[in-house]
Amino acid sequence: MSNIRRDGAPTLSRRDGLRPRSPAEALEPGRAPPRPRGVRQRRESRVVRGFARVVSGVLTIALVGMLVLGGLTLFVGHVYSRPGPLTVAQTVVVPKGASSNEIADDLEREGVISSRWAFMVSYLVQSRTRPGEVMLRHGEYLFKPQVSVREVLEILSEGKSVQYRVTIPEGLTSQQIVERLMREEHLVGEISQIPVEGSLMPETYSIEKGMERQELIRRMQLKQEQVLEKAWERRSPNLPISTPQEAVVLASIIEKETGRADERQRIAGVFVNRLGKNMRLQSDPTILYGIFGGAVQWGKPILQSEKDAKNAHNTYQINGLPPTPICNPGRPALEAALNPATHEDVFFVADGTGGHIFSKTYQEHQAAVSKWREIERDMRARQAASASETEAAAPEAEAAAGEASGEAKGIPVTQVINASEPDDEAAEPAGSASSIPMPVRKPKN
């Protein structure tokens, strides 16, 4: 038997720790080495596995939520800022106490927004992210064409409602102001009671459609308190009035005696001088208010019987100031009452041009009254002539045409009040407080 020499190294399997004999054997898995002695095998805890699953689920949900929220944010942002469907300017009234759903329905019905659902989503998101800033206020709102949801919410939140103006002239009584407010179509509600005379500030007020009448009354009362407080602080020293209420009473008389701004302080000085000398004020408007109260018709001719009537407001019959104002005076009259002009006049009479002639003595006053009598007679004669011409031309329009003719010539049609001759008591010396007649005046139209 021949001896065969093998030059190559013997081929052993991987199990024997030698090289594999073929590629297929190389792919066979080898046996893992044995675990060292003394080392225990660690088993995975069930608690750990459960916690890992929970964390994984939470992260997955959070990721999905973020994706949904991001998509919703993009959608809301698109709906929030895109132009709306409105093609022309539109006015929408949001009633007081209306819910957000009702407001959204009204906006969609009027064509301001395209979808009430998109509006509600935008409103809910904005009201949650900006609490206290985004809200829906009642009122009347004007929306421009293609207004976006964002602009709609801003307008409603800021209360940029349509503003109306209500003008209350100076010199009206509280009853007359209430009647005027009850005729105002943009106001709603009732007025519980007629306010105290002199407690309302005549002015132009901005209101919103649907505003309560009683709320406007409160605004007027608050404004009067503020104006009176400031005027009282700046009053002249040594006035014959001791309280702000007396200032309102005096201002109400000044308000009805003249409508000219350049005469208020001088007329106030006349009344202050008379009060300082314990002379009766003898103001014609107080006669009318004492008889008719809040329903008085200013400018009505005064009869001698009305002048002699005894009541709490007739300053021909009482000493000092009346117990209450006779109207609601404006700011200029209040300031004039508390800062009167300094002079020695105690009389004034109408001059026929809308102003007055002021006098220091009774003799000067009588001369001014005589001059006024001539002017008065001339006015009446011209009025009668105009009325006759008008009656001949157009009998059916006698009253209206006569009045227009008088105005064309610059002649007041309203009869001048308190134009009677001085009574017997007026012949007494000027120092007699109760016998000096107050000068006549031309009434305010």
Please give a structural write-up.
It is a single chain. The protein has helices spanning 23-27, 46-81, 100-109, 116-129, 149-158, 174-182, 213-233, 244-257, 264-276, 284-292, 304-307, 331-338, 362-393, 398-408, and strands spanning 90-94, 139-143, 163-167, 187-188, 204-208, 211-212, 347-350, 356-359. It has 445 residues and is mostly helical. A hairpin with a 5-residue loop joins strand 7 and strand 8 (356-359). Among the domains are: 90-158, 2-Layer Sandwich (Dna Ligase, domain 1), CATH 3.30.1490; 163-229, no CATH class; 348-445, no CATH class. Mean pLDDT is 80; it is low at 399-445. It contains 14 helices and eight strands. It starts with 22 loop residues before the first helix and ends in a 37-residue tail after the last helix. Strands 1-2 form a two-stranded antiparallel sheet. Strands 3-5 form a two-stranded antiparallel sheet. A two-stranded parallel sheet has the order 4-6.
Strand and helix layout:
Layout: H1 23-27, H2 46-81, E1 90-94, H3 100-109, H4 116-129, E2 139-143, H5 149-158, E3 163-167, H6 174-182, E4 187-188, E5 204-208, E6 211-212, H7 213-233, H8 244-257, H9 264-276, H10 284-292, H11 304-307, H12 331-338, E7 347-350, E8 356-359, H13 362-393, H14 398-408
Parallel strand pairs: 4-6
Antiparallel strand pairs: 1-2, 3-5, 7-8
Helix pairs in contact: 2-4, 3-4, 7-12, 8-9, 8-12, 9-12, 13-14
